[in-house]
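ok here's the first one, seq then struct tokens
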Amino acid sequence: MMNRRILKVSRVFLLLFLSIATIQAQTRITTPKEQFGFHIGDDYVVVNYTQYVDYLKKLSRESDRLKVEEIGKSSDGRSM
């Protein structure tokens, strides 16, 4: 009887610990709407190359799931 109670209490604490760890692990990622002021694909608005690269670099800083690397230069001298 006492062992079951201890097991139930420890399960509750484990669940609580895991839910708190998950909440803390979530980071805030900037959406395209927040960055550019419009949704990607909206009519009559386009993001230029410099704005898009800046956004990708910002996402790279905000998330560990994206890594931006320069692989060379374009014919215009811009980093790719």
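and now the second one, same deal
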Amino acid sequence: MKGFAKIFEAIVASIVLLASLTFFFTPNVQRSGWDRASLQILVEDALESAYLNGTLERYVKTDNTTQLNMLFSAMLPKTVDFSIEVSGIPGKTINIVCVDCNQANMDDLSAILDPRDFSYKMKNTSIRIEPLVLATQNIPESTNMLFFFDKTKISAYQTKINDFLNASGGVFLFANLDAGDVGNTSVGNTFGLVWGDITNLPGRFGNVYDASLPGHFVARYYANISTRHLQDVQSETFTAFLPTGISGQNDQRNVVRTDNDRAYVRTNEVGQGRTVWFQDYARSDHDNQFTKQIDNLTKASIMWASGERSKLDMIKKTPAPVNFKSSIFVYDGDNYIIELTIWRIFF
């Protein structure tokens, strides 16, 4: 009995000791992650289902944000919220601010882009233009692109331009340049330009079939708004440009270049944004077929530089700090990506 009593006393003492030690330690409970995994699967199933039954493409093409949001609201739990983004095609509206533009500039840009309400592969797109004095006015939050006719404004507003590009904005310079404007300058660095020799040879698209190049997307947009097919514009020539001395560098950033490696239209990517330099051209008569060619090329370049991203939310939403994304690659008239960002309302 005495032996049993001692064993029992030892057990009790051990329990008391262990219980007292818990005062000095904080329990560490690991979440299993199964709730997140199940929600991720549910989101992927919702995207796949909407894509396979054709609903997703139809609502995106018609910009039917109401029905699209109702569709996902019905398929997802009530305890989550979500945001829908489409990338790879132009949005419903492209908002351009013409920096330090007078009325003549505004009229000129409107004539170049006419009509500003148009259809791209049965998807309606509208280009909106407003003037902005960048020295004294803030860039509206909805702006997709800063448009410049005056090349000297690039260096004057370089800080604001860089901030806008880092926020995924686009910058478009429509100007005739000389040797002193490019190289290690604000214009040269922002648009990726160096000088060569002057040429007045006609310009052509580069490789219109390589989907890794910006020129492919510009050519694709140009072909559609010109009621042409992509294969038809491969050898098309542009003759209304003013002579250029900008080197058509072998860096895959040329949209339109000459046979002697000079560029009329070049793209660049800075930060999260896109830039386009576009050579000036003769445009006294916008009914002239050669002028209209480059009018359409300007519009196509703007479509690319706008970022090809748009939100399809009914109201502006800010995701919670903890969120996750699911996306699907859609094969339609154009290929594009639909991304669904989801988060718990109570986090």
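notes on #2: Residues 55 and 66 are 13 Å apart (CA to CA). The domain at 93-305 is CATH 3.40.50.880 (Rossmann fold).
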